[in-house]
Structure formats: C-alpha cells, structure tokens
Amino acid sequence: MLDSFLLGVLLFVLAIVLGLLRLSFGARIALVFGTVAILVGSVLSLVAGSGPDTGQLWSLGTIPVTWHLQAAAAWLVFWGGLAALAAFLSPSRAKNPAIWMSGAGLALLGSLGVAGLQEGIAFLIAWEFLSFGGAIMLLADGLQHREKSGQSNLYMLALLEIGAVALLLCLLLLGARNTEFAAWAGSWATYGSAAFGIAVLFIIGFGAKLGILPFYEWYPGAYGSGSGASGALLSGIILNVAYFALGRAMLDWLPRSSATGTGILLVALGTITAILAILYAFQQEDWRRLLAFSTAENAGLAVVALGAASLFRADGLNMLSTLAWTVGLIHLGGHSLAKGSMMLSADRVASVRGDYAIAQSRVLALAPWTLGIGALLGAMSLAAMPPTAGFAGEWYLFQTVFQDFHLTSSAARVTLALSGAGLALTAAIALATMIKVFGLGLLGREENQHSITGRWPILALGLLVLGYAAALPWTLGFLAEDNWPAVPAALASMVKGPILIPLRFHFAFISPPLLLLMGLLLSLIPLAMLGWSHLRQGRRRVPVWGHGLRQIPANNAVTALAFSNALREFYSFVYRPSTNTRKSHSERSYFVRELHFDYSQAPVFGPWLFRPVVRFVQIMSDRLGLALQNGSLNAYLAYIGILLIIIFASVFYI
C-alpha cells in the first residue's frame, strides 16, 4: 500500500516538472499513472482494514513526521481519484495545458498530505499545496478575461488564507509542545470552556475550502474562470480530503464536553449553506457556476451529517455517531462521481457551443449516446433521484436527522428537526436545478454540426454512479475498521443483505440494487409497447405540439431566465435581484437600434462582510506603502534587521 502511494507521489512530482518544461503529453501520462497508483493504494488500504501501514517520512527534531491512511480517508480519496482520472483522460480545454498539469500534480500531492499526514506543520504545508495547486489550474485554463480570472483567483486565495491562518492558530494552541496529531486530543481537553473557540477556528479553517458560509461565495467566480476538468478535481478529491480533515478534528480531537455546541453550529451552518447555495445555483446561466454552487450545497449536506455525528457523540450514542459520520462519507463519495460527470459534460458542451452558457443547443441530439447517458445519470444523482448514489446518500441523511428523538438536549433535537425541513427544501430545489441544467443545457433546437469527443470518461463516471449505489450494501464493510468513532457493529447494522437500513430494520429501509433491477425490468414494458406499435402501424412522424401553433418558430426556446424567474421573484428577499435595460438609438429616441438586457442577484455576504474588509486592507496598504517605500536606505536596513530579530526569536521560542 505504501509503495503504491510512494509511486503516485513520484509520478505527481514528475508531472509537475514535465509541466514546467512544457511537456504536456508526458505530464498527462504521469498524472494518469500516478492517479491509478493512488487508486490501487486506496483499495489496498480499505482491504487492510485496521492494519494499514504507517510510513515515517522525516523528523522535526524529536518529532517524527508520519503518513497513515485510515479507512475514511481511503474511501474519499478513491472515489475522488476516479473523478480526477476521468478528468485527465478527457480532452483538455486549458489554454496552457502543461501548466495545468503542474497545478493538478501539486493539488494531488496536497490531497495525499491532507489525507494521511499525522503532524501539524507538514499538514499545513500540504494544505497550502491544495490552495495553490487549484489556483494554478484555474489560471492555466485561461477561459476568462485575464483580469477577471486574476480577481477571481485572488479572491479565492484570500478567503482560503483566512482559513489557513485559523488552522495556524489551532496549531499554535494545540501543538505548541507536540505537533503530532496523536497528542492534540489531550491538549484540547485542557482548555475547558475555551475548547469551543478552538472548534470554531477549525470550522473556519476547513470550512473555507469546503464552502461553508460565508466562504461559498468564492466558488462561482473561481469555478467560472476555469474548465470543467478543474471543477472535477476541486469538487472531488480536494473537497473530500478537506471534509475528512474537518471530521478528524470534530470526532477525534474535540473534547466530548464541547461536542453539543459544536454539533449544533455545524448542523446550522451546513443547512443554511445548502439552502443558500442551491437557491443561487438555480439562477445561474453558466454550467460551471451552477455546478459550483451545487458543490457547496452538497458540502453543506455532508457537514450536516458531521454535525449530527458530533451531537450523538456528545450523548454517548456511538452507534448513531458512526451512522452519521458514515453517511457523510457515502454522500461525498457519490457526489465526486456525479459532479465529475457533469463537469466534464460542461466541457463537451463548451467545445460545441464555444462557451459554457446554459442555453438550448441540441447537443444531446448530436452527441453519441455515451455522453447523454453519462450526463443523465450524473444529473439524476445530484437531484437525488433513485436508484443513483445521490439518492442513497440523501436517503441515509434524512434517516439520520430523524433520529433526533434520542438526544437529551432540547436545543440539539430542535436543531436536527429544523435541519430536516431545510434538507427537504434543498432537495426540491436541487431537482429543479438539475432539470434546468440538463433540459436547457443539452436539449434544444439550435443546429450544430461539430463533432463531440471525450464522452467515454463521462459515460464511465455515470455508470459508476449507478454501480456505487448498487454495490453500497457490500462496500460499506470496508469502513468497519475506521479509526473513529470505531464502532464496527454500527456498519454491520446499516446493511441487511442487499437492503440499506439506519441501524434498525423496522425504522426504514431501501435497496438500491433491487431498485435498479426493478427499474430495468419495468423499462421492458414501454419498450415492448413501442415495439408492438412499430410492428403493427409502422413509424409515424407528427409535428411537436407547441401551444396550438401550426409551425413552431426555430427560435422558440425556453431560456435560463424564463425557467428560473418565478423562483427568483418568490425568493427576492434572498436574491435582491436587479434588472438593467440599456437602449442605443439612431437619430431619434423612438428608433431603437440596440437593446441590452442583463440581470443579476446580489450576494448575501459580500456587501457587508468581504467588501468592507477589502476596502480596509486597501486603505492600510496605501498608508503603509507610503511609510515603507520612502526611498531611505537606512530605513530598509532597519526593516531587514527587525525581520531577522523576529525570525531568530521565533526559532528560539519553538
């Protein structure tokens, strides 16, 4: 297992070097085989159960830096790695593919570090690899105006660095004497009532990358500046390892005395994030921006599961805590596959249309059936339609929050009950959102004659979405030896043959493999009716009904705005929409030559949270710049001397 991961690391480093040398083909090959290596390593780690190997990398003084992959991390790395592999096998839309490969290699190195490193300083370095690797990929895509792309990436990095600073504070508070993670639980327990504050720092740190509010507002700009392949990595393996890191902090290190307040906060943040993210996703006109908000929504759902696990842990309900944590893993594993198929479908649509706009384009009619099936299954999973992976994950999540009556805290019970109502609203809007992106983005009347390539990875991910759900009753056993909450009996109580159950068989149950089998059998009925009609009456061609029109105009199409405008008006108190119309005239005002129409929705947190901070930083930088850049050589030498004193002092302190 360790050899497989070591081979993957070496190939990722090779991909970075080859990318910097502008050898894009070699870098792509290195990424493909490196990803295969970590997939093999993840499988071996899951098979090994509680006994995967631990490797020592180096030492920081007397502190060894070790790498160990537990079952939950291996699960998330495996499914996210499959989406990454599909992205590497798809045709690239990056304007600078070689540099994109370097960024992808850096991001994957960071992902492995976050998933397996057991020491704080090395972990923070790997965490920064995730951030900068993603930024390099988005900049190398070059699919947006350079200035806008730079602003989006700087905005992303700025918010991610806020999270990095929060994690650095956690390192200073918990790892001042010992940076090994094994000692952090004991160190955290010494803080008493202040332990909740450290939990908030962890939520800020990891939530910045997970897109927990208010940080999800960097998602649409960053994703919208890159390709679908970049989105597949950001929404897959990178998101997954960030969730695992947050789960380790909340379930392994956090003192049980602070678990109730932390769990309530996580459930509230996850629910509100999911609702707001899917509301804004429904209004988007760009494939990438819509899917970016959908990623934040699914991350919010997983955080709800993690919050529920924390609440059950606080009451000593370890079986239910294991159920909730496992549900989060199940949900994000299936999300990686579904989001990968939709992100890569967006690239294929853009290769035909020339842009990522959600508009009727007849792509599905012109594309091979492989693209249509893969995209359909991905959209069904993100809409939580049976029998896909998304349905199994969200069904389990609903059953988890319905267990609120076991809790002793009234506040915790009310929080989970209200979360269930929020999850229901999220699921309904998610269904409408996926209907919009699939129905408008792939169907329509516009004629295109472009060939479509790269659809086989999309089909593979789509079929894996089905296979993931169908195999879930048997693959859950690989998580039985997870390090925490470490209740193998809970995993055994989640499965009864091919049936999924939430610990008790009579509470609720479903069977994804039986749903899939029955769906295939029931589909034979309409197929038989069509065959009988064709044999008896032959093929008939009749005009499509269009509200009584004898001839349907070629430009008669539902737009993205028309599809979502009703909800836009209903939730106007959230969107605060604005509509602008500009006219250009020729000679007289009543001779309109051009009419420009655009509309937008106001962000929730940007105007009152982020923009004041940006203005403050700009003002301070202007004032400090006048003082620092004063042209005095003596002043510059003094600055250098002060900096050296600070560095030496920090070394002696450590």
From TrEMBL:
The keyword Transmembrane applies. The keyword Cell membrane applies. Keywords: Cell membrane, Membrane, Oxidoreductase, Transmembrane, Transmembrane helix. It is a multi-pass membrane protein. It is found in: Cell membrane; Membrane. The chain crosses the membrane at residues 6-23, 30-49, 69-90, 97-115, 121-140, 152-174, 194-216, 228-251, 263-283, 290-312, 318-338, 363-385, 423-444, 456-476, 514-532, 633-653. Residues 121-414 form the NADH:quinone oxidoreductase/Mrp antiporter transmembrane domain. It comes from the Bacteria. This is Hydrogenase. It comes from Acidithiobacillus sulfurivorans.
